[in-house]
Amino acid sequence: MVFKKRNLVCLLLLLVAVTLWASEPLVSSDQVSGYEISSYHFSIKGKTKEFALRNAIIPDGPEPIFITLEDFKQALDAKKQILDNKRIFSSVSFSYELTSFSKGIAYYDVYFTIVDSFTLLPIPYAKYDNDAIGLRVGMKIYDKNLFGTFADLYIVGHISQGNGGLDGWDNRQDYLEMSVDSLPLGSSQEGCSPEKYFRNREDTVEI
Question: Which of 28, 146, 165, 170 makes the best surface tag, with the fewest CB within 10 Å?
Fold first, then answer.
């Protein structure tokens, strides 16, 4: 019975020692001469594509080495600010974790958590001009994150009575315009010049 108690006490002391050792940092600050991001990970809630996030905040060339941990944190804050400035996310946050240490450089994995906001904005409008267009009703639509790629979509369409007056739509005019900007195609970002469509009522062209 005494032997079993001694074994139990030894086991408890061993667990305490292992816990204390594990809580000690594997790398002390005086051993580190630089800090570098080794990889990025993204957790996205919404439609935004990971490649769009990577293109926005990850440099084309090698990752820079930061001399101090404070510089490292400021660089991550700057990346977060780039995403915040797009104003298409409900929240952007990040964390980082030490993954390896080699030749004085501490390497970190960085984890970004992204929550999309609703980016499609429809704006109905109406106006009246008794001398020229009569009653005009239409809709403008904006999307700052088309297909989750950070591309900009703009659509405007309206119908007008034409030649003024409140009675009848015999001279009706239709108008539609659409443009897309910064849509990524391959390794580049392309834009579409505005496409416009205009039709008088007597025209035979169909929408």
Answer: 28
Contacts of the segment 197-206: beta carbons below 8 A, 24+ positions apart: 198/173, 198/174, 199/173, 199/174, 199/175, 200/162, 200/171, 200/172, 200/173, 201/162, 201/169, 201/170, 201/171, 201/172, 201/173
Task: List the domain range (segments joined by +) for residue 106.
Answer: 29-116
pLDDT, residue 163, reads: 72
- Quick: pLDDT tens for 14-26: 554 444 444 444 5
176 and 104 belong to one structural domain: no
- Is the Cβ–Cβ distance between 138 and 155 less than 8 Å? no
Q: Among 95, 116, 137, identify where a domain stops.
A: 116
Please, which residues have CB within 8 angstroms of residue 122's CB and are 6 or more apart in sequence? Answer: 139, 140, 141
Of 60, 81, 116, the position where a domain reaches its end is 116
**Average pLDDT across the chain, whole number:** 82
pTM for this entry: 0.72
State yes or no: pLDDT of 190 exceeds 60.
no
Same domain as 34, residue 104 = yes
pLDDT, tens digit, 9 for 90 and up, residues 165-186:
666 677 888 899 999 988 877 5
3-state secondary structure of 205: coil
Reported as type and span, the H/E element at residue 34 is strand 34-45
